[in-house]
Design goal:
By secondary structure, this protein is mainly α. The protein contains three helices and no strands.
Length: 97
């Protein structure tokens, strides 16, 4: 019953943290590179599609432990998808070796 909202919120948190935290670590913060916003959107769309397909095929309990583990796994999925899109879409294109 609560699987989809918990998963989607977890994905949004993971994608947002991976996009914003590196920007906040810079001292002093420079302007935000909007290419990262594009990868954020791509990662969140991809992660939501993958989560929707997986959750419909797996039985997840409604207990707090199951939902907490689902949330944590979806945060990691969002973080990882955003990291992959950042590497492929931005970092590898700007590094000219």
């Amino acid at each position: 019953m609560y699987e989809y909202p918990v998963a989607y919120i977890g994905i949004a948190v993971g994608c947002l943290c991976r996009t914003i935290l590196p920007y906040l670590e810079k001292k002093p913060p420079e302007g935000f590179d909007y290419n990262y916003a594009k990868t954020f959107v791509a990662a969140i769309i991809t992660s939501i599609i993958v989560a929707s397909l997986l959750i419909s095929n797996v039985t997840i309990g409604d207990g707090p432990v199951s939902l907490t583990l689902l949330f944590a796994s979806q945060v990691l999925e969002g973080w990882g998808a955003t990291d992959v899109f950042n590497k492929l879409g931005i970092d590898w294109r700007t590094n000219k070796a």
